Amino acid sequence: MEKGHRPVGEQALAQMAVQRSARVLDVGCGSGWASRLLAHQATDGYVIGIDISDQMVELARTSSSSIRNLEFRVASAERLPFADNEFTHAFSMESLYYYQNIPAALFEIHRVLVPRGVFVTVIDLFQENEASHQWVEQLKVPVQLLGMPEYRSLLEGAGFVNVQDSRLYDPSPIPAEYSGSSFRSYDDYVNYRRAGSLFLRAEAGK
């Protein structure tokens, strides 16, 4: 997961403008690779990564034991165990479309951010990237296939302002062959790479 998402994820993290004193929430942290990068930026603050999977949280904890300003918790994005205005930044990499109730998750993320706090999310499974649609059948759990306008509307409905959307692209060369299992053909893989990842940045309204 880290190998596949980090080239785009690092671009997204750079646009969060995390300061040394930041308090950051990583929503759907998985193995914690992005949380660790964020913790190295928020050296005078802290980072908390959450995931619904206790196995992933245990892996993240084991891989991050030497980082003092980082912790992980098992929690649902739809019911965050944090106080209002607790965080200055929130990040979500490839997790929003897994949530059964995306509006509830976005309301919760907005609730725990300070006014004008920054939320950044990256999504690879979305309507405008047609090659990604085959994942809906491949994944073992239900997912939601939404488009960029729908995500913008959901963010604004949850109280976010200054919503910006764009595409991020993996800068590594497209290989001459594809031997993975995520796509049915090499052409599908190429089309997926060329479509890029959906990037959204928003600020919590007052």
Describe this structure in words.
- The chain is α/β, with parallel strands linked by helices.
- The chain has one domain: 3-Layer(aba) Sandwich (Rossmann fold).
- Helices cover 33% and strands 25% of the residues.
- It has a 7-stranded mixed beta sheet, sandwiched between helices.
- The radius of gyration is 16 Å and the shape is globular.
- Mean of residue pLDDT values: 95
Share in β-strands: 15-25%
Structural class: alpha/beta
Architecture (CATH level 2) name: 3-Layer(aba) Sandwich
Can you count the helices? Answer: 7
Q: Compute the CA-based radius of gyration.
A: 16 Å
Annotated CATH homologous superfamily = Vaccinia Virus protein VP39
The N- to C-terminal Cα distance equals 35 Å
Helix and strand pattern: HEHEHEEHEHHEHE
Count of folded domains: 1
Low-confidence stretches: none
| Shape field | globular
Describe the largest sheet. 7 strands, mixed
Q: Would you tell me which CATH topology applies?
A: Rossmann fold
Count the beta strands: 7
Helical proportion, percent range:
25-40%
Strand order in the sheet with the most strands: 3-2-1-4-5-7-6
CATH class: Alpha Beta
Q: How is the secondary structure organized here?
A:
Elements: H1 2-14, E1 23-27, H2 33-41, E2 46-51, H3 54-63, E3 70-74, E4 87-93, H4 102-112, E5 113-123, H5 135-138, H6 148-157, E6 160-168, H7 186-195, E7 197-204
Parallel strand pairs: 1-2, 1-4, 2-3, 4-5
Antiparallel strand pairs: 5-7, 6-7
